[in-house]
Amino acid sequence: MSPHRAGLQFEDQTVTVEITRDEDRILVRVGDREIPVSARPLGDGVLVVTCGSRRLIVHHAVDAGVHYLQVDGEVYTFRHGPVELESGAAPASRATAHLHDLRAPMPGIVTHVLVTEGQVVAAGDPLFVLEAMKMETVIRAVVPSVVTALRAAPGERVDGGAVVVEVEQVAGEPP
Amino acid sequence: MARTFAKILIANRGEIAVRVMRACREMGIATVAVYSDADETAPHAWLADEAVRLGPAGPAQSYLNVGRIIDAARRTGAQAIHPGYGFLAEQPGFASACREAGIIFIGPPAEVLASLGDKAAARRLADAAGVPVVPGTNEVAPDAQALEQAAQRLEFPLLLKAAAGGGGKGLRVVRRANDLAAAAESARRESQSAFGDGALIVERLLERCRHVEVQVLADAHGSVVQLGERECSLQRRHQKVVEESPSTAVDGRLRQALGEAAVRIAKAAGYVNAGTVEFLVDQDRRFFFLEVNTRLQVEHPVTELVTGIDLVAAQIRIAAGEPLPVRQDKVFLRGHALECRVYAEDPAAGFAPSPGRVLRLVEPQLPGVRVDSGIRAGQDIPVEYDPILAKVVAWAPGRREVVRKMIQALEEYVVLGFHTNIPFLRAVIAHPAFAAGDLSTDFLQQHFAGWRRPEPTPEVWAIGAVVSGSDSSSHAAHKAAAGRPPGRRDMDPWNRLTGWRLG
Description:
heterodimer, A: mainly beta, 8-stranded antiparallel barrel, 4-stranded antiparallel sheet, 16 strands, B: alpha+beta, globular
């Protein structure tokens, strides 16, 4: 059977693997390693995995495209990602930041919005305060910018990744 | 065994509410839970015999709402209220509201909560009892000017503390005079929001010390015993992470001295019920009084495991007017106990809170391991409350064995769906410096600053590919999903962190 290529993301790394399915086992090529893996589900969310010469209990859960795996006491979160054209492990690709969106780094409650629309802010100026699990986080401007819109009011509960303050970088300033 | 109360209301949530309910069950006492809208299906709300809704998720409208809690106790006929820790546990106003309603507050009298809850007053009390105190102010600093004067008198680095504080809230380390004003404002705001009181005291920050505390029990008849020490030096953001008893820094003589100092302070304060006297111990084994925690501590189980005394049961009996369950000459510390606090947080991102849904949960089951847990599979961990999920507590005859047992327990502990500190905890207690008992309040900063999750090995990538079904079917599903706008869980904010800085 011809190998199937798949992209896998862990944090900011993306790796392309080649999967070949035999009758009773799977061969996974990761970089220049070819690793035989067999997985037998034991019930909901737990599998016995044989990987090379090792036998492991692996816990697995998936939510909205994120796969959570516990292997040997460590937890890994994987997503499916883009497939590289060349075979072998792809180099780590860093996600780029959206400088124009100042987002809530986690779900929480916006306790203070410290800027107003049209305000010019310097790098390091506090923009808003988010409280999650009784901890305050101050989100600051990274580059000199002008505030173009406020998307959440104090007291509002926001999801992780929600835009709270929209800014536009002030032209001519190096980031 | 005479029954103390017929019914107790537990004015708390999470693991501590569950812990208290279990003690009540053992004692044949009926339990009443209270819950907010965020906790309607949380374990504590289901475990109790009755459950009363308090209100919306916000603490002010739920677990901090004295009126609604007293009302719930009245309506259900609860004779006593156990406050757990946090929330209303140390609020004199709550204790007196209970008294006025004819309900027993399971904790110290309101007057004792008031005098010891004021950190400045507690310092004065320890001073008067002849116990050494951390250099600092014995009065709250009323304004910025007073703060500055106090700062000049002490030496930097300083520690600003909410006079009414606890649990690491309203604390700020100040290393330079220039940072004092901003730190004070931020500490005031945080303590105002957490405790409804923005008053601050200043202490010199003693570094490379050990945090050692002594558990005391006092009955309403004037007897006080101390149940040995707990070492809680491993802290992040001034919140404890790993605790043990006995402490590797305490020998018989120091134990005796700490115990006597704790009992002296408890007696001077007119203390009743369970309390903890906190000290810093420096490298020369000198100790300094820090504060008294007028509640059951998160880390109380390590004392329970080495003394064999159930502290929650003792609290209930003391509140019912019974004499102390044990005499001082019958208190022995046996073996070694270790506790790890499991938090919903990301240790690789500055311990940022990490709320989410529990997708999979497997708690360790080993001989000598106890898990005090407040979560269940399928539960959404709310953003409104503390990130503590559970405590893992282990006991063994010796420290080396208990560390090994804990490593095993943490390896078997599965919480999937968001970041927890479980892998971090395992790395911490597996560290050679921890094994050597070489601890200080700077330990985590010193050995684990910038800690990162291990990257997947080729084997783990391979397992990830197979288990996540990187085969055609699910990959097609992924491609289909790629077209739709990202939802809450599709977004990994940490991938975008370059755009922000966390202050």
